[in-house]
Amino acid sequence: MSARIDGKAEALRVRERVAEGVAAFKEKTGRTPGLAVVLVGEDPASQVYVGSKGKATVAAGMESFTHRLPDDTSQAELLALIDQLNGDPAVDGILVQLPLPGHLDEDEVIGEIDPSKDVDGFHVINAGRLSVGQDAMVPCTPYGCIHLLKQQHGDLSGLHAVVIGRSNIVGKPMAQLLLSENATVTIAHSRTKNLPELAKSADILVAAVGRAEMVKGDWVKPGATVIDVGINRLPPAEEGAKGKLVGDVAYEEAAEKAAAITPVPGGVGPMTIAMLLRNTLVAAHRREGLKDPE
Ligand code: NDP
Known about the structure:
single chain; Rossmann fold; 3-stranded parallel β-sheet; 42% helix; binds NADPH dihydro-nicotinamide-adenine-dinucleotide phosphate; methionine biosynthesis
């Protein structure tokens, strides 16, 4: 049986370090780092995410500014709010909660955010910087995954990493981060042939697909490290109940083979918020011309 990678505990440690960094930053600069979160519409999952981001920001000693806009907000109104936040000296980080209602153009909205305040790391400037190895705002979920992997392995060089999923927010930046740690990286997606065999060649297997328990135990190389990014809700066992949350990996089977594996929930999920707080603190330091916090 493998070791369970405790993302919840590690996220708490990161958040404690961020809180210490915030206190030191306040002492040095006399101001408090601030994170603005913009939510358009009433999506219940997004409401919960935005609520927990706000609470975590305050718990780390930072200012939290939440902007809740109605579902029928126009593109022009949203862009105007982003411009206002770009120019607001109290705001170090701006996060627009996705997905946006269908009538809004997400790419244009993300492109409007000042790249130095883009704490989600989704702006093309940050994607480009990450890919050429310059200081970037790194997307929070892959940043959390690479943090857990470095904790687990120390040095990743020469290890074969297979990333299943090539989205701009998880798969691609994950692959870039692994490459920058000198792993040998293969990116798999819906057109990949012989995926189970490919997965089985991985020392590090990252699943970011969005398909409940797709990665089976016999896809996992004995001794591999498995990072499960997926969050999927199974249909409820009975009417009115909530379905169980599972990842993209069949946990019990995979845990028989892997040396270490992240659970869902309690693995990658909590790291995402922790890295958002860290990115906000990093953005504040860079805006003040200070070197990145430890
Ligand atoms: P996307 O839907 O944007 O991307 C999914 C990727 O999986 C695509 O590249 C797709 O390939 C690939 N894929 C789909 N089906 C298969 C298949 N049968 N075989 C191989 N590859 C396949 O999802 P995201 O990247 O946004 O998210 C992935 C998962 O991670 C979701 O469950 C999401 O909820 C979760 N997530 C979790 C976060 C956290 O904090 N823990 C944060 C963000 C996401 P193709 O490109 O060919 O279509």
